[in-house]
Structures are given as C-alpha cells and as structure tokens.
Design the sequence.
DNA sequence: CACCATGTTCCTTG
DNA sequence: CCAAGGAACATGGT
C-alpha cells in the first residue's frame, strides 16, 4: 500500500478538492470495503453531509464531515485505508467507473471514487483502528527515548517490528528497508540488540526518509485521477512533465543484485515474516 | 503455471 | 497470557 508519505500526499491533494463538497448519494458497490459498517448505515450517515477537511493518521485517512440535522450540527468521521491497491479521487460524473469501484459518492457534477482492485482497503464509520496506532513519526509524540525503550522490549527482528504500527505508525515494507539502510542497521538484528545510539540513529532515519518521500511526492507532478496507470511513481501514475523514473528515490528497495549506492556491495533480498526485505550486507550490520 | 506485489487481521504454535 | 510466524483476504502483472 501506499505508506505514510503516499497517504500524506494524497490527503494534501484531497484537501484542495474535497472541503465544501456535499454528498448527495452514497453507492456502496462492495460491502466488504465498508466493513464493519453496513452499506445502508454509511449511506444514512453520509448522505447530506459536507466534507470539511481530510486528516491522516499513520496510513489511515480521516474524512471529517458535517451535517445539519434539524438545525443542530452533527460531526461525522469516515475512516479510509488504501490497503495494497486502493485509490481515492474526485472526477467528473461523466468519467466511467473503474472495474473495481468499491464506494462512490455523488457530489453533484463530480463524484468521489474509492477504487480498490484487491479490496483490502476500507471506507468505514468505524474509526477504532486509527486509535490503536503508535505515535506519528513526524510529530513531537515520537520521542527517541521512548522509541529506544520500546525496542528493548522486543526480541523480534527490527524490520518486522517496524511494520506492526504500534511502536511507530505509518511505516510499510518499502520505507522499513529504506530507513534501516540509511541508519546502517541490519534488518535481521533483534530490536533489543540495538544500542541506544543505533536506536537514535534509526529514529532519525525514519523521520528523514519519510520527510524526504513526502517532499518528493509533493514536488513530482502526479496523476491522482482514475485514468493514471500506476507505474510505481510514488504509487500514483505520472502527471504531465513527471520524470520517467522514480528509482532514484529508493536506495535499496527492489534493488536486489544491484550495487549498493554507498559501497558497491550487491544489495540482497531476504524474506522476513513472509515479506521481502532489501539491504546491503556490508553497510548494514 | 509459478511467483510476486507499497497491508491488516486472524489463527496457530511455542 | 504473550510473542512470533504464517495464512487468508483478492486480483493482476511478469
């Protein structure tokens, strides 16, 4: 899925098109995508409501909406998650719906589309998942001392632990490899084996890598709409004028067999907890 | 056909 | 009870 940076960039984009728009009708084409909310429930809550702003928490999107019910204001929050293949965008009503449209909101002349090929994502009234997350890596809540302390409590490999979202939110399979590469720490090290200095270095790398990615994604022209073919460029398709390749952005991810950008040793791919990890066996100890 | 995929949750095992 | 690993979910690309 889109990880924290991709979601952040999407949220910033949606905030330029969504606030003020009113939901005239809700079409749930895949009941699974709104679980555990029932489709009628979502339609009932969201019909007639207006978008105010979109926020991000980890990889989750929070759509803050407002509805006037007999004079009194009612706040409604929809929790969104892109899963592995989700996209959310606003397009004209005349645009044909994609094959895997999961939820469609009629906004008048436009519509909001949540499309999701594999249906791992969500668009739901149940916001509990976002409340169980660890600290936001780019907020002051993410403190190096507490981070180091959390790591001491786990015997798991650091790479798989970064993916659980409870020590820190928003890191996925790509940026876990990237952060460990920048910190020069082997993904196979157990959390508790990290020296305080290494934990601190990882803390810094996590923030630097995520920040960098957000900046890159905000700079490149992206195609947020439904038409764009996903070509790996920051998850979305290219917009007009975007560079041909994004590979410069990621230093180790998906580079098995290529020379390490730092020492030329060949980058290695291993599997941890069923997922690919990429690292340089020489730089990362 | 085989294997791979930017995620989360549930089940089993130790 | 807890932690860790694996399967499941579902579809498409190579």
Sequence:
């Amino acid at each position: 899925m889109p990880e924290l940076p991709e979601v952040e960039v999407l949220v910033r984009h949606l905030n330029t098109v969504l606030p003020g728009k009113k939901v005239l009708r809700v079409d749930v084409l895949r009941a699974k995508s709104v679980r555990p909310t029932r489709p009628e429930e979502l339609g009932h809550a969201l019909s007639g409501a207006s978008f105010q702003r979109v926020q991000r928490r980890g990889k989750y999107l929070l759509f803050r909406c407002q509805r006037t019910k007999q004079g009194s204001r009612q706040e409604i929050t929809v929790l969104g998650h892109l899963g592995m293949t989700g996209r959310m965008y606003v397009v004209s009503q005349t645009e044909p719906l994609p094959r895997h449209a999961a939820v469609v909101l009629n906004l008048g002349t436009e519509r909001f589309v949540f499309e999701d090929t594999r249906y791992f994502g969500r668009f739901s009234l149940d916001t509990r998942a976002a409340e169980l997350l660890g600290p936001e890596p780019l907020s002051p809540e993410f403190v190096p001392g507490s981070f180091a302390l959390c790591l001491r409590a786990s015997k798991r490999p650091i790479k798989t632990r970064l993916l659980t979202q409870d020590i820190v939110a928003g890191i996925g399979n790509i940026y876990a490899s990237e952060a460990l590469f920048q910190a020069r720490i082997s993904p196979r090290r157990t959390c508790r084996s990290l020296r305080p200095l290494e934990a601190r270095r990882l803390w810094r790398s996590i923030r630097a890598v995520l920040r960098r990615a957000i900046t890159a994604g905000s700079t490149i022209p992206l195609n947020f709409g439904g038409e764009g073919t996903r070509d790996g460029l920051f998850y979305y398709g290219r917009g007009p004028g975007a560079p041909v390749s994004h590979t410069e952005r990621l230093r180790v991810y998906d580079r098995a067999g290529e020379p390490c950008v730092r020492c030329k040793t060949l980058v290695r791919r291993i599997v941890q907890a069923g997922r690919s990890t990429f690292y340089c066996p020489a730089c990362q100890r």
